[in-house]
Amino acid sequence: MPINIPKHLPAGELLRKEKIFVMEEDRAKTQQIRPLNILVFNLMPEKEKTELQLLRLLGNTPLQVDVTFLNTATYESKNVSKSHLDTFYQTFDEIKHRRYDGLIITGAPVEKMQFEDVGYWKEITDVMDWADQNVTSIMYICWGAQAALYHHFGIGKFELPKKCSGVYSHVITDLTVDLVRGFSDEYVAPHSRHTSVSIDEVRAHPDLRLLSYSDDAGVFIVQSKNNKHIMITGHLEYDATTLSDEYFRDVEKDPENTEVPINYFPNNDPQNAPKNVWRAHSHLLFYNWLNYYVYQETPYEWHFVEENIEYHI
Question: Annotated catalytic sites, by residue?
């Protein structure tokens, strides 16, 4: 089934070249089907790259998905044109009257700051509180995951001695949980962050379930026991070259203190092109989320929830 995107979104042409079934809004309106409505709160600086990464994963399932992009109203992005934001993004005030089947809150380049010092922290918490009542399932990525653990569960973050950057091996704590159904006993995934959260605090929290972790990179996948909140501290959505782009960007800024990402470049040589060795698990994670936590849980029409009538897709 197709993924529905705004007309003329630049990512659309790239997705078509990858043979991902893309349908623009005008054609989607003619389909006699109830699509899943997914809201993406994109806080990443290079928004068009993140759009492509997430749309690629959301579009690789049998489900029809209608995507809306959300941007902050309290902070003006510097790495994307205003015309792109005006054309393809909405603000919270414009969508808060609606209900959504799923929400993705991405990472953001503010992880070294205290949460309350982030200029748009109030806006983030307003969206998270609203989502509790108006969204079936929420996925948080990287800083978004840390923000959710802090806001919803009182677990803070701490700064690492050096940046956690590379491709790390992870294990699953319970392969019977639907979110990790089909995962290998061990698998790899990228991380790119300066902060982390305590694995002991996560394990001890009565409302959380630690699903996956790395001996080297720490906490990776955390799920609330009511299945509503899914927190991913790394970047399974990353392309093969994303860590490389970040590495060379950091080398230009601070060559002496920028280390080569762990287990990423072949032979640990930045001149060698990296390979995407996590792609299968990226698609599997998003497929499982959309299927088990969104599609199978969301009401066919949201007003049935308000009338206390159980009516599922």
Answer: 142, 235, 237
